[in-house]
Amino acid sequence: MPLFMDVHHTLPEGATFDDVAGAHEADLRTQDRYGVSYLRYWVDEGAGKVFCLVDAPSAEAAADVHREAHGLVADEIHLVQEGS
């Protein structure tokens, strides 16, 4: 399955790492309906950015999970390959 990295450029006002963790949990509860697997996420609270790594059949499916789970759709979604 394709691997995507999504980028959220701006967190909602006052959002914290714990808020993002809660949104990720909502993604996990929703993802199976779309054939998606949200794998990891990174938060830069200072810059207000979030990055999510996701296995998904398409960028649209990844966005649909975020939209349904919590409404915070990424600003960018990039097809990526994992290296070591």
From TrEMBL:
**InterPro entries per the UniProt record, alphabetical:** SCO4226, SCO4226-like
Descriptive protein name? DUF4242 domain-containing protein
**Natural source organism:** Microlunatus ginsengisoli
